[in-house]
Design goal:
Elements lengths: L6 H28 L4 H31 L2
């Protein structure tokens, strides 16, 4: 192992991978939910998707910034 490896970053990278899978899961499951949804449920689903995407993007970008900050 190199001296640049920090065990604290490993969990951040793991959560980044989980966030990417969450985004892929949204792409797969949300269109099926939206087809027969009434208006209020549609708005709720859209808000949940937006919140999940914002947090997933934040986790992924934080992991990438830590990764590229080492170089």
């Amino acid at each position: 192992m190199s001296n640049n490896y920090d065990k604290g970053y490993a969990s951040l990278y793991f959560f980044g991978i989980l966030a990417a899978y969450a985004i892929l899961g949204l792409i797969v499951f949300v269109p099926g939910l939206l087809t027969g949804a009434p208006t209020l449920l549609f708005i709720g689903i859209v808000l949940v998707v937006i919140v999940v995407l914002i947090f997933a993007a934040a986790i992924i970008l934080k992991g990438l910034s830590k990764l590229f900050n080492k170089f």
